[in-house]
Amino acid sequence: MEKVGGRMYQPVQRFGPETTHEDFLPAYDWAQDSDGHILLIEIP
Prior knowledge:
Helices cover 0% and strands 36% of the residues. By secondary structure, the chain is an all-beta fold.
């Protein structure tokens, strides 16, 4: 578990070119920051 913006999330273990939204928990969307890190964003 990691913390982003004070919210907890649990990403899947694999990240690659075929990573899709469905690889993450349904309540979250994802984006990449300028360093290429995957960030998950809670969907209201």
